[in-house]
Amino acid sequence: MATKHEIDVAAEIVEFELANLEALQDYVIDNNVDCDFIMNQTVDVQLSEEHNSSLKRGFDDLASAGVSGIKGANGAFKYTTGHLWPYKLIHHMFSRTLSHEHLNLQTNTPVTNISYSPHPTGKWIVTTSRGSVRGQKVIISTNAYTALLPEYHEKIIPYRAICIRIVVPTPPMLADSYSLRSNLQDFDYLTPQPDGSIIVGGARSAYFRHTEDCYGSVDDTNLIDRAKDYFDEYMQKTLSWLGNSGAYTAQIWTGSECTMFQTISVLICRNKAWATLQTHFRMLGMSLGGKTFSSWVVSQDTVFLKSPLAGKAISRMVLQDIAYSDTEFPQLFEETALRLENG
């Protein structure tokens, strides 16, 4: 990123990521949230010498090759991160939020239409399967489904991804999370759980060339056939110390995500130049390694969590009517009409 953009722009994004991790940790601790939050380290392992060399050129302090335990590793670097059980965290947040008045929470209620222009009262009409709701301002935080908005046709591409839970009969102490990268776009990730099981996602090499299997789809009711066997004996083939452990796949599922026409996630906010959208706010994210600014949630137990500071910034724009430049958002995440048109 520092190569494509200026160093201070890249540094702003890094600082935003770290601030999100700290904000999430503070919330969990301050509110005594039971969500299996663990602050640990992630080991980012490079399986391709070409990709490893590319990273070394970009980062002078990248650790040299030879980190023990990963078969075929050419290099690795390590950084502080954390993981949790988002389902538990979200339930905690809902329980707290529902204790306040003036909140109407509707689940299993798809929105089928948003009015093109405001009602004469100044409110937007949001049509759902249970009737219509009117609001002065609308926040759209719908991940892959945001592709349904006309201005994002072929700009946001929904796609399916796959994830599994691996059980090890006698689990070793796996303190770190892992990202195993074959190249910039092809990587797997491993996240140890408190019960000794391991959540593993990725398998892109098994299906990403077959776009009909995943791209343009939000169907998370069926598995990706080409990828469902990818994880057979995955741990034994990947981690040297689990060769005869008897590790097996206990659960496997598919979730919907989205990618964008640009190479960096864009948190899309109000653009006053668009008269018909001046009170619409949009929070978007994508799946580049589960970065902390991602603002979407994938189904099942292990998901990418809505960025706490993204939510805070959007809330301030809505409630305080402040400009994007006055929020915590990095400048590179701001969308403009010109940026959207040009891709």
UniProtKB/TrEMBL annotation:
Tree of life domain: Eukaryota
> What is this protein's record name?
FAD dependent oxidoreductase domain-containing protein
Q: What is the species of this protein?
A: Fusarium venenatum
Q: Name one Pfam family in it.
A: DAO
Q: Which Gene Ontology CC terms are recorded?
A: cytoplasm
Entry-linked InterPro entries: FAD-dep_OxRdtase, FAD/NAD-bd_sf
- Describe the location of the FAD dependent oxidoreductase domain by residue ranges: 18-234
